Amino acid sequence: MISIGPGDGALTLRTGVAGRAARTGHSLTIGFDAWRADIAFDGDTPVSVALRVDVDSLQVLSGEGGLTPMTGPERLVARANALKSLKSSAFPEIVFRAGDVSASGDGYRLSGDLTICGVTEPHTVDVAVDGSTVSGQSAVTQTTFGIKPYSLMMGALKVADEVVVTLEASVTVS
């Protein structure tokens, strides 16, 4: 088994904006400072993956778009709103467990269960392997997990329901 985390790469989440006033809002790039993926092998072949993310380690890295550039204080407000939407005090972890790993193209297809806010749903992620670099991205629909996307101005500006999670990391198999 090998483990990877923030020292090996980045786990990020990208949001979009929706609603009549979408052009006034920022699309966010969010990073997580505390996460760990454990990969179990049978010989050289991965057979399972377990990813745990500490929700409270969420950081707003940047905000694109909007009428004005996103400021530091606005990033702090966005972080607080994200933690509230994710109900981080009640559900401090996001967990993805893939017990079905199969070769696919230039990498692997990870099939398993994703748990966010106490709701578990089947989820599949395709990852590419290029030498020692593993990368993948997956769309997640917030409302599927009981998350109400943040909104203001009576819904005229809101976070889009679908977010995209991206992982890029260096993995050394010994």
UniProtKB/TrEMBL annotation:
SUPFAM superfamilies (alphabetical): YceI-like (SSF101874)
Every Lipid/polyisoprenoid-binding YceI-like domain range: 1-172
InterPro entries reported in the protein's UniProt record: Lipid/polyisoprenoid-bd_YceI, TTHA0802/YceI-like_sf
Family affiliation: Belongs to the UPF0312 family.
Protein name: Lipid/polyisoprenoid-binding YceI-like domain-containing protein
Species of origin: Gordonia sihwensis NBRC 108236
Organism lineage string: Bacteria, Bacillati, Actinomycetota, Actinomycetes, Mycobacteriales
